[in-house]
Amino acid sequence: MCMLNIIKSVIFGIVEGITEWLPISSTGHLYLFQSFMNLNEPKAFISMYMVVIQLGAILAVVLLYWKRLWPVRRIRTTKDRVGRLGWDHDILQMWLKVIIATIPAAVIGGPFDDFFEAHFYNPTSIAVMLILFGILFIVVENRNATKKARVYSVDDFTYRDAIIIGLFQLIAALFPGTSRSGATIIGALMIGISRTSAAEFTFFLAIPAMFGGTLLKLRHFHHFTGDQGAVLAVGMIVSFVVSVLAIKFLMNYIKTHDFKAFGWYRIALGIIVLAVGFLI
Q1: 107 domain-assigned
Q2: Model-level pTM greater than 0.85?
Q3: Into how many domains does the chain fold?
Q4: Does a structural domain hold residue 117?
Q5: How far apart are CA 123 and CA 273, in angstroms?
Q6: Does residue 25 form part of some domain?
Q7: Which residues contact 6 (CB under 8 A, 6 or more apart)?
Q8: d(CA 255, CA 247)
Q9: In this prediction, what percent of the chain has a pLDDT beyond 70?
Q10: What is the dihedral of CA 144, 147, 151, 152, to 10 degrees?
Q11: Domain extent for 260
């Protein structure tokens, strides 16, 4: 087993766990790290690895929000102390909205995933989307500074809200560097969703989106060596642990802060990505 690849996988897992949930683009950060410390593996494995380690990040959401995600409840009555199993209709409606929001990326983004990766996974495209959405964060937060949010709970989302947020996720699915969380949060803020509700819906929306992305990558990669399996497992485990911490940090941070700091960070990162792309 190549210990150097294991160490690199730990670093990639940390980067994925932080940047998948903060709206600062996991793609932009992983591009920079790949430029200087790429895994010593075939290109096909690396392409698959960078997507599949997101499974660890997904499990972090499931762990932290299990009660908000699992729709089966034990319903107790005065006659029946033990209760019976039943469906929580609020959670079922939430999942329906998540599915609706997933449709644009699944229908349009899925079939063209390989095309857009081949033509837009480059430093210029990544940097442009980093900077563009960084500016959008600042503009939208400035516009919302004197406005009250229209929606303060995911339960109060309309199906129209879900469709609009899903269209923003489509942008992220097509153009690397946009940041899936960044795009969906921007879309939610623009239509009057509160910061905490925007972030939570983004977490929930990630579950089918990232599972789908993982399946798309795995369809082209069917065989792992023992070393490759170990590298992938380490990346997923680390991304899981770090994601738990990153999600908790973000939810505490946005209770008293806006997203403008992330916007400025994205602009700076975009400039760095352009510089690195020009030099290598």
Answers
A1: yes
A2: yes
A3: 1
A4: yes
A5: 6
A6: no
A7: 230, 231, 234
A8: 13
A9: 90
A10: 90
A11: 3-19+87-279
